[in-house]
Amino acid sequence: MPRSLALFAIGLLLGGGLGFFLAAANNVALDGHRHPAADSAGHGGTIDLPADPGAPTLDFRVERDAASGWNLHILTTGFRFAPERANAPHRPGEGHAHVYLDGKKIARLYGPWFHLGALPPGRITLSVTLNANDHSALTVAGRPLKAEKTITVE
Q1: For the chain, what is the radius of gyration of the CA atoms?
Q2: How many angstroms separate the CA atoms of 9 and 22, rounded?
Q3: Portion of the chain with pLDDT greater than 70, in percent
Q4: How far apart are CA 8 and CA 26, in angstroms?
Q5: Nearest-angstrom CA–CA distance, 27 and 21
């Protein structure tokens, strides 16, 4: 088992939140793969979309979960999650999202909801990007399709 994946597994056994934190610190996404910082631009480069009324938009909400952790809800227009075409060529208006914790990729999402486990205390910056099926970063008129929020964890 690769060291980074072992750290992730050990952390999960020790309480979930620690595994989440160790994984993020070691650039290990929840899919068990390492994603170096350079990966934040996407595997396939960038696809720039025109700034017209049909261009995708992105926002998200993050709220405490009633039982534990946090829930992330991604809000988009002009975009459809397409898990059935992950790693396939780009098709306009579809793809997946990448989630970052303090600049480090922690997950690839194929739908609008995601449960974040316990987060380390302090100010945390969550970022979400929309990406094409081929993992290219999507931009609109040269601006990344990215939303970012900072929360304070007690």
Answers
A1: 15
A2: 9
A3: 71
A4: 9
A5: 10
- Domains of the chain, each with CATH number or no CATH: 38-153 (2.60.40.10)
* Amino acid (one-letter) located at 37: A
Residues in contact with 6: Cβ distance below 8 Å, sequence separation at least 6, in sequence order: none
- Tell me whether residue 9 is exposed, middle or buried, using C-beta atoms within 10 angstroms of its C-beta: 0 to 12, 13 to 18, 19 or more: middle
Q: Which amino acid is at 29?
A: A
Question: How far is Cα of residue 100 from the mean position of the Cα atoms in its chain?
Answer: 5
The model's pLDDT over 90-113, given as tens digits with 9 standing for 90+, comes to: 999 999 999 999 999 999 999 999
pLDDT at position 22: 39
pLDDT at 44: 63
Q: Which two tokens stand for residue 142?
A: 């040269």
For residue 26, what are the β-bridge partners?
A: none
Comparing CA positions, the residue from 72, 62, 73, 49 lying closest to residue 131 is 49
Cα three-residue angle 9-13-14, rounded to 5 degrees: 115
- pTM score of the predicted model: 0.73
